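User: Hi! I'm a student and our assignment asks us to look at how structure tokens line up with a sequence. Could you show me two examples?

Assistant: Happy to help. In each example below, the sequence comes first and the structure tokens follow. Example one:
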Amino acid sequence: MLINKKIVLLLIIFFAIAIIIFIYFYNKPDIINNAAHKNEAEESQPVKIENQLTNQEKRINDIEEFESAKVQKDFAQCNEIKDIYTSDLCFKQIALDLSDNSGCAYIENKQEQKMCSFIIYKRKALEDKKVDPCYELKDQNLIDRCVKQVVEANFCSTEECFNDFLQNKANYDTDKDGLTDNQEIYIYFTDSNIIDTDGDGYSDGDEVRAGYNPNGEGEL
């Protein structure tokens, strides 16, 4: 009976050891995989940091190129900028600084490209006190907007006046001296923005109607 108890005890111990060994080898692949994943994660960490540093270096290079391009007023340097937004900003900044519409054409964002051209041509129209530069724009809405702002700034401020200008721009009289702009520019060679071009006290229109030269002494 004692022998049977020993045999049973040995069998229990044997089966316990067998179960422990089975459990160990059953879970061993997971242990190996976890260790492998841990090693891969540790190995990939330097690469991730390296990529972050590379992106940071790119941003720094873009900023340096942008600042240099602005100083040099060089469109070619804007092409070296990798970030599209910064590149567009570079082209726009230089184009506006130089009042050079050719730079606007390089802008990738079409809306920004149109606004760049709008600002340049409107600025020129305001400086010249003529709406002609506005018609260089390709977008009809921008043309109308440009003309309206230039007319309101230089000629009149009412909607009625603006509508009258659009309908009769070929015969518009900017300085209200009785001569159309076309007559002053192409026939009498007077200044369409000044009522009395030669400063003799008589308006250009009054002199022409009286038969005198509005741009100097003597008769027409």
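Example two works the same way, sequence first and then tokens:
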Amino acid sequence: MIIKEPEALYTIRFNDCDPFGHLNNASYINYFMNAREDHLVQTYNLHLKDYAAKGLGWVVVQHQIAYLKPALVAEKIYIFSRVLEFSPHHIMVEMWMTDEQKKKIKSFLWSKFVHIDLKTGRKAEQDAGLMKLLSEVTVEHDAAETFEQRISTFVQSI
């Protein structure tokens, strides 16, 4: 069975925190992006460097993030990710961070990635193998739901 919501455990590092011991707002994005890359490798054996070697890659065109509870220095947290939608040119990924017990949501993120030709910087179509994988891992959701509605629905489900 294919995993649609990969997860991984991380530790909040001192150098990623503000003077109050909270994860710096900008660092949340780094944790999410690194986790997504880890999920791709560990769950789907998909390596971004292999695509880069072919002259292909993805760029972020949009992030929507909500900071719900602070992540603290030395705290263990889980980061989850899943594909909400895709087309031949883009992927929309939903990610969230929880406490170690997976009970409290600390942050929630939507990221939209566009597939590009690294030489030209223009949109490129995702290959058939990737499109097949995306069709297998995309989760069902209400496409009309706004980011704020999705957070509310999601928080209530945990």
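Here is something you could point out in your write-up. DSSP finds four helices and five strands in the chain.
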